[in-house]
Amino acid sequence: MASKGRVRVLSPRTPELLGARIRKARLTAGLSLAAVAQTDFSRAYLDQIELGRARPSMRILQIIAERLHRPVEYFLQDPQRSTMAVELTLTEARTRLQQGDGVRAQMMINDLLARPQLPLEVRCRARLVLAEVLLKLRAIPEAVELLRTTIPDTQANGWRALTVELYDKMGSAHYLRRQPHEAGRWWDKALSLYEDAELNDPVVKARILGHRANIHYVAGQPREAIAGYQAAIEAAEAILDMKQLGGIYEGLALAFERAGDLSRALEYAQKSLRLFDTLQDLRMSAQLRNNMAEILLHQGRPIEAEALFLTGAEQLQRLGENDLYPHLMAGAAEAALEQGNLDLAKTRIALSIARAKASNDPLSRLSAQRIAGRIAQCDGPPGDARAHFEAALELARAVGSPMEESQVAFDYAQVLEEQGNATEALVRYRQAYQARQRTGSD
User: Fold this and answer.
1) What does pTM read for this prediction?
2) Best mean pLDDT range from 14-28, 107-121, 157-171, 233-247
3) If you count DSSP H runs as helices and E runs as strands, how many of each does the chain have, helices first?
């Protein structure tokens, strides 16, 4: 009697099973090896993967899944228990978030958190990613509540590196709420725990230092902000994290602008823009174009500023982003005004104000109202200009920004002076001076 052959059972880690699923999905989609591989890897390598003779890296598997329009977990056996599947889900969610697809990232993390018997440490890491997603989607109260309920779990289990990340994210949430004091308190806690735990993660350290420098910047302390950003650069440059470094360069550009050093401000703004253009981060690229354009306006270069404002606005238009768009369009209106094109300025500011109604960023609404006041003074009843400036001042007080209050009050004073109201103009000039004094600026 012939002996029975041994039956080979494919385990969850068997390359043949993974390869067979990839091949099946590719044929179902009607795609060739070349169409899936493109320029990221060779057709021969993909063929070896499908035959079970090679195992793809996590990144390669993500690319294959995206081109075959399947979730990564489709290709993995027993995804509910696979550690690899969980890590891939977290990685893919972060990738989606970086690509601007926050809605898809949120769905992925929510599906992950719905799984039974998910280890607590993994659950906390997933909540951290979800909090980042919620902040990107401007669901700030939900993010704060999620972080508030997660931090005790990481503290109780001694997961100090994860706790540092959660503290840092909580600081970001309060910063977005325009609560700089509370944001600074959380970032101080993050840095203190980072140092006490003797962690060695330059990316995290650079991020925290950059965030703390932001607090000095919004408090009107450009010199302290510059020192903080430079300390962050020392950490970020060591690991060549371009996105982190680009954000710090942006902060330095703004700080040098506030300190009156426009040449160095423009230098760092250009460095930051090049990095984010390379990374194809359209929203950050648009933000940097706005910053550079404002510097150019201060230098009396409205034509160059206008080009940057409009390019940034076009990028945001493609993204469907409403928060920053009104700020850029208001800047384009001011650039047109500086060139003497009042009709174009009026068209742009009307668009900016209309879009500002849907913006979650009070600074965008503030910018639109301030510039609308300047434009109304050139063509319209005096009361219209005053109404816009009063609205801008109210927004400046609401966000607690002495710098913005100073700028609005100064522009308002100039308009009142032009209208022949010297007494009230003097009051606004004094308000601008006092607001600037509160920032600690010279």
Assistant:
1) 0.55
2) 157-171
3) 22, 0
